[in-house]
Design a protein that fits this description.
single chain; mainly alpha; Arc Repressor Mutant, subunit A; Tetracycline Repressor, domain 2; two-stranded antiparallel ribbon; 2 strands; about 5% strand; HTH-type_TetR-like_transc_reg; TetR/AcrR family transcriptional regulator; HTH_TetR; DNA-binding; DNA-binding transcription factor activity
Length: about 240
């Protein structure tokens, strides 16, 4: 009986079942090692990407991620041929949480409290790292699954705002578009202040909500100090002490 050809140059052991008719593949130690190396490289790429995106945002180069992961550029591209593929792998779980926040708020019993909680939780999620801050203020195509999450999120947020407006309790008729502008502003603020004035994002969101909701529904945290603001603005005189 003629044995099937060996795939490529990787040695593979062939044997047959008890009938002698059906070949079965047994991987050699060399092939197992190659697969283990590939899995380690993929895990290293994901860990490096998550760290670099959190530190620098999503515009970082794939070359920088490969350098941080201590793998070759070709190895990174073999696992993630596009920047979008890597972003999708790193952030899909976060974007699912982003969608769930809005869908939970759309079903909540108190429409006005639901709007407050949805905006606060979404902006707090955005503030967890610079890469996520960028993505929640963007419609950059990543994958069909992420596109579907964004459609669901927009539908849910529209419901949240419409329900709150219909109560007649809001100070202004806020809209999902106002919320989108807040996310864009918050992303820029996070990039500039997360290291030097980390509570700035929470204050921005609370001040925004204070202009929309009944005042007794919002607690506004303290403003950043002058020193924190000067550091965030790059003033050498506001540098942290060594």
């Amino acid at each position: 009986m003629t044995e099937p050809p060996i795939r490529g140059c990787i040695p593979t052991c062939w044997t047959y079942d008890q009938t002698g008719m059906h070949p079965q593949i047994f991987r050699t130690g060399e092939e197992v090692d190659m697969r283990a190396d590939a899995e380690r490289n993929r895990a290293a790429a994901l860990a490096a990407a998550e760290a670099v995106y959190a530190e620098q945002g999503v515009e970082v180069s794939l070359n920088e991620i490969a350098r941080r992961a201590e793998i070759g550029n070709a190895t990174l591209y073999r696992h993630f041929p596009t920047h979008e593929a890597l972003l999708s792998e790193v952030y899909t779980g976060h974007l699912e949480r982003y969608c769930a926040i809005a869908e939970d708020a759309a079903r909540a019993a108190d429409p006005v409290a639901a709007l407050r909680d949805c905006v606060t939780a979404t902006c707090a999620l955005q503030a967890t790292n610079r890469g996520l801050a960028d993505l929640l203020a963007s419609l950059r195509p990543l994958s069909p699954h992420v596109d579907a999450l964004r459609v669901r999120h927009h539908r849910a947020v529209t419901t949240v705002f419409r329900r709150a407006v219909r109560t007649g309790e809001l100070c202004v008729d806020a809209s999902p578009e106002d919320f989108a502008v807040l996310l864009i502003a918050n992303a820029g603020l996070i990039h500039r202040t997360v290291d030097d004035a980390p509570r700035s994002s929470a204050r921005l969101v609370a001040v925004w909500l204070a202009g929309v909701l009944p005042h007794d529904m919002v607690d506004v945290p303290p403003a950043p100090t002058e020193t924190q603001v000067r550091r965030a603005l790059g003033d050498p005189g506001g540098a942290r002490p060594r």
